[in-house]
Amino acid sequence: MLSLTLLPAAHGDALWIEYGPARGRRRLLIDAGPAHTYPALQARLEKLKPAQRRFELVVVSHIDADHIDGALILLQDRARLQLQIGEVWFNTWAHLPAHARDDFAPLQGEFLGALIGLDAALAQTLNKRFDRKAVVVPPPPADTTAPVPPLPVVELAGGARLTLLGPNPPDLRRLRARWSAAIRDFTPGDAEEAKRRLLERREYRPPTGPAVFAARAYGDDRAPANGSSISLLLEVHGQAVLLAADAHARTLAANLARLCAERGVSRLKLDAVKLPHHGSMGNVNIDWLSRVDCDRWLVSTNGAVFGHPDVQTAELVARCMPAGKRAAFHCNYRSETTERLQDGAAAGGWSVVYPPKNAAAGRAGEGLTLELR
Ligand SMILES: [Zn+2]
What we know:
The chain is of the alpha/beta class. It has helices at 38-46, 65-81, 107-117, 120-125, 169-177, 179-184, 191-200, 224-227, 249-263, 286-289, 311-320, 339-343, 345-348, and strands spanning 2-6, 15-19, 26-30, 54-55, 57-59, 84-85, 88-89, 153-156, 160-166, 231-236, 239-243, 268-269, 272-274, 292-293, 296-299, 328-331, 351-353, 368-372. It has 13 helices and 18 strands.
């Protein structure tokens, strides 16, 4: 049994994963959403008997507020909840490759690093399976004729296997160089970046102006924080799920191609894909979409802040589907932005699944659960 729940994490990600038999159910948490949606995660933990409050693994994919802020609260609430955590994967400042000029004050990353570092039990678990070093994909050999080593694989208790699909070393180097920019969204005075950010803000879009945004292209997300995302392939009991965090398209493309070569397949058969970056078109491209064979696509967002998802993402996913297959998009909110997917469904040849009616759009309900057997 494998179930994935996209908790109601507003514009962020909080994925609650369960696997294994009813007696001896195991749990993983991939990101914890922004601070104001923490109560949904808290309520779900409190529904469990204290003895069951355990995550085999908590992954904080990257330092953006919509993924990390809930984890800052969770770790401070851990003792009260009697929550056990087997392992934490997170790339702190100390895990990033050294840079010539380091004078930044990395805020949330510093907070989380401190919370873990000051808790002796938790500190033991940090990036344990990576020898306490960075969670990063080792680069392929410089000599292109030499064999490419396999991607890092971690076996978890209860028969779950994780294959690391990102970040790559250059992604971490870019984060190191731009740490404060990643926290603050952009460096003051960086007009190019400011403009790019502004173009992403749908609330500032002129009503007649779609052409203004035509320059926006598939796979163009260059934000260093997103690029540093820990992205994973989870395999358990014959099911396979791609957990793409907010990863860049080029990183996913490189490592999915590498994994396909490693396994001698042209496409990876998957039971679900958590779309990167809340379904933004900036994080999909043909290169990686054509490496997967999947009909369930998960979208975690209520559309607040960045206006995700993009209907163009659904269009490209549909175009890259293997012949004769239809994509279904599973959204954890029914909101103005996620309804755009529904508007394009008939013409695009895909379908859209929303949470049950009682989970009112934009309000903290149960989120969306997908049971895979
Ligand atoms: Zn995000």
